[in-house]
Each structure stands twice: as C-alpha cells, then as structure tokens.
Specification:
Elements: E1 3-8, H1 15-26, E2 29-32, H2 33-43, H3 46-56, H4 63-75, E3 81-85, H5 91-103, E4 108-115, H6 118-132, H7 139-153, H8 155-161, E5 166-170, H9 175-186
Parallel strand pairs: 1-3, 1-4, 2-3, 4-5
Helix pairs in contact: 1-9, 2-3, 4-5, 6-7
Bound molecules: BIS(adenosine)-5'-tetraphosphate.
Length: about 190
C-alpha cells in the first residue's frame, strides 16, 4: 500500500541518520534530495557541477530542479512507499509535493519535525566534517545553511501544522533515544 512520510529539521538534526532506521522498520524507500544531488556531483553531471557551487555556499538548489528530480524518482516506482528526507525545503516544494502525492495516490501519513538546538547541530556537523570531510560542513557554510533553514524551510512547520499531520520530536541526545521517540510517536 502506498505511504509517505516527511522528515523535517535543521541541517544536522539527524534526518538522514534516523531516516535509514525508520525505512528499515517500515519498508519505505529513503528519498534524500541531498544524497541525490551529491550523487550528481560525484558523477560530474551538468546538474552536479551547478549544484556543488550552490551546496558549498549553503544555499538551496532551485525548486524546479528539485521537483523534477523527485517526480522522476516517483515515476520509476511501482509502489510509492517513501520517506522524504530533506524535501520539501520551501513552500513551492511543499505545494508541488501536495500535487505529486495526489497524482501518485500516495497519502501523507505524517511529518516528523526533529527539534535540535542550533549549537548542537553546529557541533554535530563540525564533527562530521572531521570524519567525512563533506565540503559543505565548514563553519561559514553551516551558519548559512541554518539561516536558509530559518528563512525558507521553517515556515513549512506552520504549513504542516495546518494539516494536523505535524509530529514534533525532541532530536537531542543519543541516536537510539531519538529513534525510540520517533517510533513512539508514529506508532
Ligand atoms: P542534506 O543532504 O539534506 O543535508 P542536511 O540538512 O545537512 O542533513 P543530513 O541529513 O546530512 O544530516 P543529519 O541531520 O542526518 O542537504 C545538503 C544540501 O543539499 C543543502 O544545503 C542544499 O544545498 C541541498 N539540498 C538538499 N535538498 C534540497 C532541497 N529539497 N531543495 C533545495 N536544495 C536542497 O546528520 C548530521 C550529522 O549529525 C551526522 O554526522 C550524524 O552522524 C550526526 N548525528 C545525527 N544524529 C545524532 C545524534 N542523536 N547525536 C549525535 N550526532 C548525531
């Protein structure tokens, strides 16, 4: 049966980390727009070359490109059982997703908002920089990613609150504790 979930939260909130775990449990496919973009960067596609500059600056890739990528991915699926990780990030993306979910007959089961202090997410991302060397995990870019999140993505909290589907989860503390909270709230 078709089912979709959304993970929201600031950069470094644990979306990617928790998405992997939840997808295993609920037999969902993780659809991370960040991973899709990084795959283009690795393969050196035209989109990847453009996206790298934008990502390294901590800005958002254009809505048109992101929505096109998501649509193509949904079209390739026989059954739409998806956890959106890092999408939507703007009101235009959220409105496009509403239409896509109607087109693909895939109801939205819930929107999980991972809440974590800015200081804590900054420390997590700086730690990841040491471990993985991701080029957008430096202090200046992190600051900009947080600013972009507050300006362009945080307004979606109100958007989804209005649908009654928003579930706020404390994302502080150990990965296993956050995982248990998410399981508890989704049932
Ligand atoms: P993303 O790849 O989505 O990156 P992110 O927001 O930083 O989150 P990520 O999933 O990587 O980190 P997580 O919180 O799991 O986006 C990167 C860029 O791509 C964007 O800036 C933008 O340019 C572009 N982009 C992507 N989607 C887009 C869209 N829809 N529209 C436009 N542009 C888009 O974890 C971070 C770290 O914390 C990890 O190292 C993890 O191990 C650690 N961690 C997690 N949980 C923890 C815990 N409980 N305790 C300690 N550490 C923890």
């Amino acid at each position: 049966m078709n089912e979709t979930l959304i993970f929201m939260g600031p950069p470094g909130a644990g979306k990617g980390t928790q998405a992997v775990k939840l997808c295993e449990n609920r037999k969902l496919k993780q659809l991370s727009t960040g991973d899709m973009l990084r795959d283009h960067v690795r393969r050196g596609t035209e989109l990847g070359v453009q996206a790298k500059q934008i990502m390294d600056a901590g800005k958002l890739v254009s809505d048109e490109v992101i929505i096109g990528m998501v649509r193509a991915e949904l079209e390739s699926m026989e059954e739409v059982r998806v956890l959106f990780d890092g999408f939507p990030r703007t009101t235009a993306q959220a409105e496009a997703l509403d239409q896509l979910l109607q087109d693909f007959n895939a109801p939205l089961a819930g929107v999980v908002l991972l809440e974590v202090d800015e200081e804590v997410v900054t420390q997590r991302l700086l730690k990841r920089a040491e471990l993985e060397g991701r080029s957008d995990d430096n202090e200046q870019t992190i600051r900009n990613r947080l600013k972009v999140y507050n300006e362009q993505t945080a307004p979606l909290i109100g958007y989804y609150e209005g649908t009654g589907k928003l579930k706020k989860v404390d994302g502080m503390g150990e990965v296993a504790d956050v995982e248990a909270r998410i399981q508890g709230i989704l049932g």
